[in-house]
Specification:
The protein is built from 5 helices and 8 strands. It is α/β, with parallel strands linked by helices and about 250 residues long. The chain has an 8-stranded mixed beta sheet with strand order 1-2-4-3-5-6-7-8, with helices on both faces.
Amino acid sequence: MRNLYLVIPFVLLFSATFGKISAAEPIYHEKLYPEGSEKQPAVIALHTSGGFKTIKHLTKRYVDAGFIVYAPDFFQRHGITSSNRMETFNEYRQSIENELSELVEVIKKDPKVDDRNIFAVGYSNGGFWACFLAGSSKVNAGVSHYGVWKANFGGEITNDYPMGYFSSSSSPTLALHGGRDLTQKIEFAEEAWKEIRSQGADLTTHIFPRANHGWDKKNSWKFRYNQAVDLESHKLTILFFKQHIRN
């Protein structure tokens, strides 16, 4: 049966006096629903440092797999762009943590969502936030695709980067990474994974030896599309989510 894709943007409310986005409202997000009247699991799809547009070509595949998709734009409210993307992890970090936590509560109230089964997947910058959601046990499980584990080329940043989110009580997390990633070098990722495991967290890793950063990016001037890795990484993501479905 053909899936029905409903793209529903959350309408941002503006203050009549100041014309600014109300901080009391959830951050902008779009919702997509697969066909069917029964409650279904949901996945929060988190974009890269390239902005909200970088998740749009990926959401349909999660709907095809039977997931309701919530795709938030966690840059828009704070005026973050690719040029000041590092502010995501310091100046606006706590705000984004709060906003994504609020979004989880919104998802739980969606009558079409099976609120026992909410997951997160993130790409690059979004992989960092998938770690936040899984590390703080706000979702059943999280998957990071070529995620952020250290600041640029291994530099340090506040709060242990994503490693500080993890403990023995964290939800299971899957890290998918390229062995030839020049943006988030594999040696820094492996250092982070070792630290996360030492904290008792349930972390699974998979390295694609020949893959670089941004393997799902078709028609990109910056990244080389790798169809085999794109398809395999998505397959592993769906399998990981299904392994952690609660009945």
